[in-house]
Design goal:
17% strand; single chain
């Protein structure tokens, strides 16, 4: 006897489980405290570091060694942050644990109408 088929899961839930990343509304702290204290510090200080306009369209996403990946809502914001890379890196280097940051890279994320938060599915990377 065959098991009854379950209803398919929404792609969002599948990606969330596959990537094991919390999908939180933008501007709020992730539901789980980041294991890296440097990322926790970045999340808490992001608005102060970059200002409201940039904070509304970006978030620190991943710290890989001395390279910070930032998710942005569009290529326009990726370009804007690229132009502001040096002043941003100077501000980042003032945070504990980020003194040796070497690079900042942006990746475009898709915005969901359901939670108005940045998603973790990069479309392109900019460096």
């Amino acid at each position: 006897m065959r098991n009854k088929l379950k209803a398919p899961l929404p792609l969002r839930e599948i990606l969330q489980k596959a990537l094991k990343m919390p999908l939180t509304p933008h501007g709020s702290a992730p539901s789980a405290t980041p294991s890296d204290p440097r990322m926790a510090s970045l999340a808490q200080n992001w608005l102060r570091l970059v200002g409201k306009a940039i904070a509304d369209n970006s978030r620190p996403f991943r710290l890989n060694g001395h390279v910070l990946a930032i998710e942005v809502t569009s290529s326009v914001w990726a370009n804007e942050l690229h132009l502001l890379k040096m002043p941003l890196m100077e501000k980042l280097r003032r945070l504990p644990g980020l003194e040796e940051i070497e690079d900042v890279r942006c990746q475009i994320a898709t915005r969901s109408a359901s939670d108005k938060g940045l998603k973790t599915r990069p479309l392109k990377s900019f460096g």
